[in-house]
């Protein structure tokens, strides 16, 4: 009788192995979900960054159209768009009497899918006002649009370059 009680207190090697197998199956099932979650978060950040920077470009153009930015400004192209992304962070002198400088972005946002060792300005594909919608090279005249130039498919099946 004493011998039976001693055996019942511990766990067997079989029980331990079965537990480890079950835990490893759960871990293998959870790994793709974790990778999917990371990709979804990067996509959300990409959409947010594109929206913020495109809004800054549109605000710049609207100020140019409304006459707040001089038509002769070195910062704006003939079509009223910023000549570079850095102009949005450096700002432009407005035509008001106070001579204030308006900045449209605090910084050029990073592309969540790009290597962080690359400067933020170089992580994006720029499109000039004169460029075709599917242009593969930036015309260099101004910054009309910005995108992530990649053929990688998003979770919804679209390519990031079409966002």
Word description of this protein:
It is a single chain. By secondary structure, the chain is mainly alpha-helical. It has one domain. It has three helices and four strands. The strands form two sheets. Strands 1-2 form a two-stranded antiparallel ribbon. The longest helix is centred in the N-terminal third of the chain and has 53 residues, at 13-65.
Biggest sheet: strand arrangement = 1-2
Low-confidence stretches: none
Count of DSSP E strands?
4
Please report which band the strand proportion falls in: under 5%, 5-15%, 15-25%, 25-35%, 35-45% or over 45%: 5-15%
Which range best describes the helical content: under 10%, 10-25%, 25-40%, 40-55%, 55-70% or over 70%? 40-55%
Oligomerization status of the protein chains: single chain
Shape descriptor? elongated
Number of domains: 1
Order of helices and strands: HHHEEEE
Q: How far apart are the first and last residues' alpha carbons, in Å?
A: 74 Å
Count of helices? 3
Structural class: mainly alpha
Q: Evaluate the radius of gyration.
A: 27 Å
- Rounded average pLDDT: 88
What is the makeup of the main sheet? 2 strands, antiparallel
Structure described in brief:
The chain has 163 residues and is mostly helical. It has one domain.
Summarize the SSE layout with pairings.
Blueprint: H1 2-9, H2 13-65, H3 86-90, E1 92-93, E2 101-102, E3 125-127, E4 145-147
Antiparallel strand pairs: 1-2, 3-4
